[in-house]
Each structure stands twice: as C-alpha cells, then as structure tokens.
Amino acid sequence: MTTPSASDAPAASHASENVAVTAEKRWAIIVGLIILLLLAMMVFTGLHWAAMPPSRVETIDPQTLHISGEFVESKLGTSVGPDGKVVVRLIAQQYSFQPPCLVVPAEMPVTFRGTSTDAIHGFIIGTTNANVMLVPGFVATFTTSFKRPGEHLMPCHEFCGTGHEAMWARLQVIEPNEFLAKASGGKVVSCVPR
Ligand SMILES: [Cu+2]
Predict the structure, then answer these.
(1) pTM of structure
(2) Thinking of the domain 73-186, which architecture would CATH place it in?
C-alpha cells in the first residue's frame, strides 16, 4: 500500500538529483573553460616570449669594455642622455663597484646599466626592490625610481670570492632639481671624492 508521500519521495529526490547534475555540469563547463584559458595563456606567452624574451639579451666583451664604449671609466656614473633619460652606468669587479658612490634623482625614472668584468656579481639597493645580477659578458639593465631623497647601501649579493662581504657601494638619492643642476651639460655625476 502506498501513501502519497511515499510515492512523492522518489520523484522529489529525482528532481533534486537533476538540479545537482545540472549544477555540476555547469561548473564542469566553467572549470573546463578556465583550464582552456590558462592553457591558451601558456601557449600564447610561451610563443610570444620565445620570440621576444622579457629581459633583452645584450652582450659585451669583458676584455675590452674598459677601453671603449659606454663602460669606460669617464662614463661610469649617472648622466642625462640626449633624450632626457637618466642613466646610471656601473661595473662590478672583485671586489668593488665602479663608481662606489652613486647619485640619482628622486621621483624620476632611472635606468641602470651594469656589467661585470670578472665573476658573477649583483646588487640590491637598500630596502627598495631594485635587485639585479651582473654577469660577465652581459649588460644588465632595469628602470626604477626612488620616492624620496636619502642614502642607501648597495651590497653585492652574489658570492663572488673571498672579498665578497666587503663589496658594496652607496647610492644617494637627491632632489631632482639638485641632480639636474649637477648633471647639466652632459656631466657624469657620482659622489666619489675627486
Ligand atoms: Cu661581488
């Protein structure tokens, strides 16, 4: 003998199962689309970056960089290019940075260009996120800006030999006007006493 509620129960559970299956299918489609999107991003960035690496590979001969080119001693430091861009050029060698005291303006984009003459070096600037490796044979470059005037320590952060722990430079961030006055006429600025 059946009661209305007993005959309703299977129908009700059947209906709720349908709701669950529909919801599951909907989520399966959404998750499938997310996976396809991520795969498409991997394929796109892989192909795109293989053609155009995110960090340009720029090579330089460590044997001759002190004789000619942008890393000769007179060009090491900070200068304002003809395009108005502030560029810091420095080299790392066992166990110092040249120049060992850098000057940059606050609140302006500053491009660093550095390389090494011997072993792998690197530096980090104080508590900023400026952090790069200097590999012999390659020019490392990045652009950053410093919010306010002050002075930062710039230690070598790649173990480069017995003198590694004594290898560091200072970086002074000064007011933009003060910097532009010092760098006027294409002068190369640093805070190394001359
Ligand atoms: Cu070093």
Answers:
(1) 0.71
(2) Sandwich (2.60)
